[in-house]
């Protein structure tokens, strides 16, 4: 056993060029398996997180905001935006049958915020009635969000002085939220009173966001929780029929459109990964067959000096396992070096919710990619090993003479 | 005194190519965010300038490494690359702040690319060091 391993190692060292090419092939295989699986898992994770964070059964926004897809831009892509309606719409919704809770949200896009040439999204919520943002806040902040306090999303840097200034109003940053992998990570959250005062300041500075709606009566959306025993669709239709100038949407339908896009991307990645896997196994198998043919004489001599058929097979399998193992570690390492630091870029380019899985899942993925790659290498050499061990040593040497 | 000489190896080429790609990359490919509307620069611009300075020093070191004839000098240069690459990795976001949002160019492109190049340079320098130590 030990002799076979030593010989395998020496064979690898003896032909460095050939070994390096095979290691690179194994690395490519491991890279594609690990990176492909990581992206697919992150997309699924992102969708689950988006679904969980949306919270409401029905989302109501002003009609023009719905036609422009403004809410999805804010929630999904994190593109700052704003739209307003009068809060009388919310009062009407609260009085409707089947509505358990209706809570307002207020969206405001900042002018360029302090440090950078980008606008920030401010989302105001009503601490008394909110059931979508506060449970999420409680995961990372146990205190109450008072007047003048803000909580920043995970993709917003925590300022060193723990304060952010919007339209000359300084707000205290009290916490940073956990990552969701969606546009919600790009927003800043505050109570409705705080955001309303910020918009009043903006108005006094000459920014006209509200149109005809007064700052004290303006809201951007209403998040609705449907009471048990009522159909979400019926409540949504009821709102669309009875409340003017608004559009109610089931959050399920918002998610299903994203899920369709996500499933297309996942399918392409999975298909590519499987194709690469098959291609790499075929290439490795061909390479091993060629090597075995080239080394027929060497194996025949080894047979004559006393090496058993099993030992030759073991030597070839050890060679391929060693090459695959080194290649796999290299491939997974390179994939990790690209996939983890560039997470934000991948998310931005895919334009879909994207949240990396937890450490345990990543570790399992690393192990799986390593095993799959080593298995592919060993499988591809198994045919050659079997063929070689059956060759007649005397015949091989006579043929070569 | 016996002079230890050494020819140009694969690792000399790898180090030189990596360091040149790092230097040119931070200047032209994965450079930080552009100027603000008022013409002023954000902090990330200065982080990019600092990284390009360190990357330039790494490139010069790799160039000397490439032409150096003495194996022990090459080992010394490998050791010099290690802290410089580490410094480059620490500049964006740790030693010099970057922009506020994670999807901005400095945070989504420049900082990760600097991390990748720094890790690759450290790995290449360590491998070269180990190979040369064995042959001493």
Topology:
The complex is a heterodimer of chains A (401) and B (136).
Chain A: H1 2-14, H2 16-54, E1 58-62, H3 63-68, H4 70-77, E2 85-86, H5 88-94, E3 99-109, E4 121-125, H6 134-137, E5 149-152, E6 163-166, E7 169-176, E8 187-191, H7 192-204, E9 218-219, E10 221-226, H8 232-242, E11 246-250, H9 251-294, H10 296-304, H11 309-339, H12 343-350, H13 359-390, H14 393-400
Parallel strand pairs in A: 4-8, 5-7
Antiparallel strand pairs in A: 1-10, 1-11, 2-9, 3-4, 3-10, 5-8, 6-7
Helix pairs in contact in A: 1-11, 2-9, 2-11, 2-13, 9-13, 10-14, 11-13
Chain B: H1 10-29, H2 43-67, H3 71-90, H4 105-135
Helix pairs in contact in B: 1-2, 1-4, 2-3, 3-4
The share of residues in extended strands of chain A comes to 5-15%
Order of helices and strands of chain B: HHHH
Helix percentage range of chain A: 55-70%
Helix percent of chain B reads over 70%
Describe the overall structure.
- The complex is a heterodimer of chains A (401) and B (136).
- By secondary structure, chain A is of the alpha+beta class.
- Chain A has helices at 2-14, 16-54, 63-68, 70-77, 88-94, 134-137, 192-204, 232-242, 251-294, 296-304, 309-339, 343-350, 359-390, 393-400, and strands spanning 58-62, 85-86, 99-109, 121-125, 149-152, 163-166, 169-176, 187-191, 218-219, 221-226, 246-250.
- Chain A folds into two domains: 2-49 and 258-400, no CATH class; 52-250, no CATH class.
- Helices cover 58% and strands 14% of the residues of chain A.
- In chain A, helix 2 (16-54) packs antiparallel against helix 9 (251-294), helix 2 crosses helix 11 (309-339) and helix 10 packs across helix 14.
- Chain A is elongated, with a radius of gyration of 31 Å.
- The model of chain A has no long low-confidence stretch (mean pLDDT 85).
- Chain B is mainly alpha-helical and 136 residues long.
- Chain B has one domain.
- Chain B is built from four helices and no strands.
- Chain B has helices at 10-29, 43-67, 71-90, 105-135.
- Chain B is elongated, with a radius of gyration of 17 Å.
- The mean pLDDT of chain B is 92.
- At the A-B interface, helix 12 of A face helix 4 of B.
């Amino acid at each position: 056993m030990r002799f076979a391993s030593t010989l395998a190692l020496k064979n690898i060292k003896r032909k460095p060029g050939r070994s390096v090419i095979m290691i690179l092939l194994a690395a490519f295989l491991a890279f594609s398996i690990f990176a492909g699986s990581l992206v697919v898992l992150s997309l699924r994770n992102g969708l689950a997180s988006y679904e969980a964070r949306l919270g409401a059964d029905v989302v109501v926004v002003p009609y023009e905001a719905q036609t422009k897809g403004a809410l999805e831009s804010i929630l999904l892509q994190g593109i700052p935006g704003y739209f307003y309606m009068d809060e009388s719409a919310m009062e009407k919704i609260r009085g409707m049958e089947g509505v358990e809770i209706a809570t307002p949200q207020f969206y405001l896009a900042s002018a360029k915020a302090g440090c950078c040439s980008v606008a920030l999204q401010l989302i105001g919520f009503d601490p008394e009635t909110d059931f979508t943002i506060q449970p999420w806040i409680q995961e990372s902040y146990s205190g109450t969000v008072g007047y003048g306090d803000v909580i920043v999303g995970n993709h917003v840097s925590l300022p060193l002085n723990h304060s952010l200034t919007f339209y000359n109003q300084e707000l205290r940053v009290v916490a940073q939220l956990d990552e969701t992998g969606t546009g919600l990570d790009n927003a800043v959250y505050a109570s409705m009173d705080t955001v309303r005062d910020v918009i009043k300041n903006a108005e006094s500075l000459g920014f006209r966001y509200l149109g005809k709606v007064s700052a004290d009566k303006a809201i951007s959306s209403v998040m609705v929780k449907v009471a048990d025993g009522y159909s979400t669709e019926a409540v949504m239709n009821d709102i669309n029929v009875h409340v003017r100038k608004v559009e109610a949407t089931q959050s399920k339908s918002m998610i299903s459109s994203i899920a369709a896009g996500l499933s297309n991307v996942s399918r392409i990645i999975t298909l590519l990964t499987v194709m690469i896997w098959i291609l790499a196994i075929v290439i490795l198998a061909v390479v091993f067959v060629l090597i075995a043919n080239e080394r027929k004489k060497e194996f025949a001599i080894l047979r004559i000096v006393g090496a058993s058929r099993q030992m030759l097979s073991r030597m070839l399998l050890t060679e391929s396992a060693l090459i695959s193992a080194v290649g796999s570690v290299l491939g997974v390492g390179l994939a990790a070096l690209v996939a983890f630091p560039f997470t934000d870029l991948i998310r931005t380019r895919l334009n879909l919710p994207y949240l990396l899985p937890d450490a345990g899942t990543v570790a399992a993925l690393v192990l799986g990619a390593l095993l799959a790659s080593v298995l592919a290498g060993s499988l591809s050499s198994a045919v050659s090993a079997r063929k070689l061990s059956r060759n007649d040593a005397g015949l091989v040497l006579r043929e070569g003479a | 005194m016996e002079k230890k000489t050494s020819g140009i190896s694969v690792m000399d080429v790898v180090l030189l190519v990596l360091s040149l790609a790092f230097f040119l990359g931070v200047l032209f490919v994965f450079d930080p965010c552009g100027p603000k509307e008022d013409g002023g620069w954000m902090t990330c611009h200065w982080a990019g300038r600092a990284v390009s300075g360190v990357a330039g020093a790494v490139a010069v070191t790799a160039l000397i490494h490439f032409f150096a004839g003495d194996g022990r000098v090459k080992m010394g240069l490998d050791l010099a690359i290690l802290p410089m690459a580490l410094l480059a990795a620490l500049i964006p976001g740790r030693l010099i702040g970057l922009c506020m949002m994670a999807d901005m160019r400095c945070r989504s492109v420049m900082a990760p690319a600097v991390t990748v190049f720094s890790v690759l340079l450290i790995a290449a320098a360590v491998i070269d060091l180990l190979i040369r130590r064995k042959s001493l």
